[in-house]
Design brief:
The mean pLDDT is 78. This protein has a two-stranded antiparallel ribbon. The chain has 2 helices and 6 strands. It is 26% helix and 17% strand. It folds into 2 domains: 31 residues; 72 residues, Chaperone, DNAj Protein, Chain A. With 143 residues, it is α+β, with helices and mostly antiparallel strands. Keywords: Membrane, Transmembrane, Transmembrane helix.
């Protein structure tokens, strides 16, 4: 059964089919990937590498942030928390004994520590507190 429409604007009769039919569906080619064990392992290693490359720096950043929030009270290891180390030239005495020969000796003030017998600790810079790892590094212009 078909319907005919007449219109003064149209010169011919329009006819519609009784049922609307859908256009035929287009079929797409099926892509089939045969993944062997080596391919799966390679993809897995790639994904894990990317995750580790992102995760490890994020982990260390969070650890640095947490460490900077905590007070550092660990005493300096080289100077035992005193902030000073014995002079290596005079062994902490402040004097240097020079043998002039034929059993003559001369005692003079140490030129390294200026007769004090100790120097400021180079690890803690005299504070007596062990610096954190990143605090020990001196940043220079070429870094």
């Amino acid at each position: 059964m078909s319907f005919a429409l007449q219109s003064p604007f149209l010169s011919s009769h329009l006819k519609f089919p009784p049922k609307l039919q859908r256009p035929p569906t287009t079929s797409y080619p099926c892509i089939r990937a045969d993944l062997d064990q080596n391919t799966i392992v390679a993809i897995s290693v790639g994904v894990i590498s990317v995750a580790a490359g992102i995760g490890i720096p994020v982990f260390y950043e969070s650890q640095i942030d947490n460490a900077s929030k905590r007070d550092n009270t660990q005493p300096c290891f080289p100077c035992d928390g005193s902030g000073a180390q014995n002079c290596r030239f005079c062994m902490g005495t402040g004097n240097v004994v020079v043998e002039l020969g034929s059993s003559e000796t001369e005692v003079s003030n140490c030129i390294n520590c200026e007769g004090l017998g100790s120097l400021t600790c180079t690890t803690c810079q005299g504070s007596g507190i062990q610096p954190r790892y990143l605090d020990r590094r001196e940043f220079k212009d070429d870094d």
